[in-house]
Design brief:
It is built from 16 helices and 1 strand. With 367 residues, the protein is mainly α. The chain folds into 3 domains: 35 residues, no CATH class; 218 residues, MetI-like (MetI-like fold); 58 residues.
């Protein structure tokens, strides 16, 4: 009686694994994809080397004037960015008080690090402090007027600092307000539903630049005489209300995607409306619309450039003001490229984090 000796499995073909396998699967899987890949490679060949040569190889990096750039032309003059860097970051904030903004930034990073540590036991309390306690600390650090700190008017806040302040406040305020509006729009109470529908459709029907203009110019006309309403606060309120309407529609799409059986199961368990929403429905709905939420946040971050219309100088406005300086005329490409790079860093980071969050919360129901 003969016995059969099992033979070891043969290795997969070299053309289906590793780098070669990835190239065949993603770039050369068909004749059409091969043609598109070669065409894209040719476009990259034509554009990337000259761009690298201009931005890096022949670029000027050091100096305190435009003289090196005028003597040797052909490369980017990043000297303009280095000389004006503090203005791009801090705006018109007093140079001697930069440490206050730096301290607030370091404090935020220190507070946020434990939230990304899985074993940290007090995430909930720390999260509440970051949302409600830290903004108070940051405001008094920026504004001053207490504990011997020099008072700095909000009109002097600017640069990337102002961009981050507006975006952070807008995100933190529009998210919970958007959830409440989405729940109200799906409410069975006619008055609540009508109010939410009118609010959402009104704010979605006007451009943000109009909202900012009205909040800065028209709103003070309706306030009692002598009332001083800070311009930055008005901009924050306008941005938050505007973005909350878009956030409400994003959240509503997630609520509509939840099967009716989930609502019925919550009722069968004897949960109240708010218990079922907070424990069962909203966690599932928000997980489904993470891309939409992050997309709204990215749009908000870029829309902060519109505050220039009401006299607030964010980073892009500070760059445009610097380009108007007769000493630095002709370097708009460098200034706008720097602004584009900074905005890309923040938007790309938010996009990558949202994808990581989706993978972390994935529960096997992805289609």
């Amino acid at each position: 009686m003969s016995t059969h000796t099992p033979q070891p499995d043969l290795p997969p073909p070299i053309t289906s694994v590793g780098v070669i396998g990835w190239l065949r699967t993603n770039l050369f899987s068909s004749w059409g994809n091969t043609v598109l890949t070669l065409a894209a490679a040719y476009v990259v060949y034509l554009t990337l080397p000259p761009l690298i040569e201009w931005a890096l190889i022949k670029a000027h990096w050091l100096g305190d004037s435009r003289e090196p750039c005028d003597l040797e032309k052909g490369g980017a003059c990043w000297v303009f960015v280095s000389v004006r860097f503090n203005q791009f970051m801090y705006g018109l904030y007093p140079e001697a008080q930069y440490w206050r903004i730096n301290l607030a930034a370091i404090l935020l990073v220190v507070l946020m690090i434990p939230l990304f540590i899985k074993q940290f036991p007090w995430k909930l309390w720390l999260g509440f402090f970051v949302l409600f306690g830290y903004p108070v600390i940051a405001f008094y650090l920026f504004s001053g007027g207490v504990l011997g700190l020099e008072h700095v008017e909000t009109s002097r806040w600017g640069g990337l600092t102002l961009t981050l302040v507006l975006a952070s406040v807008g995100m933190a305020a529009s998210f919970p307000l958007g959830i409440l509006l989405a729940l109200g729009r799906r409410s069975s109470m006619p008055i609540v539903k009508s109010v939410c529908v009118v609010f959402i459709e009104f704010w979605r029907g006007v451009p943000l630049i109009t909202v900012l203009f009205m909040s800065s110019v028209m709103l003070p006309l309706f306030l009692p005489e002598g009332t001083n309403f800070d311009k930055l606060l008005r901009a924050m309120i306008g941005i938050s209300l505007f973005q909350s309407a878009y956030m409400a529609e994003v959240v509503r799409s997630g609520l509509q995607a939840i099967p009716k059986g989930q609502y019925e199961a919550a009722q069968a368990m004897g949960l109240s409306y708010w218990q079922s929403m907070s424990l069962i429905i909203l966690p599932q709905a928000l997980k489904l619309v993470i891309p939409g939420i992050v997309n709204t946040f990215i749009a908000l971050f870029k829309d902060t450039t519109l505050v220039l219309i009401i006299g607030l100088f964010d980073m892009l406005a500070m760059i445009e003001a610097a380009l108007a300086d007769p000493k630095w005329l002709g370097f708009s490409i460098e200034g706008l490229s720097f602004a584009a790079f900074v905005y890309w860093i923040f938007c790309f980071s938010m996009s990558r984090y949202s994808m990581a969050l989706e993978r972390k919360l994935h529960t096997g129901h992805k289609r």
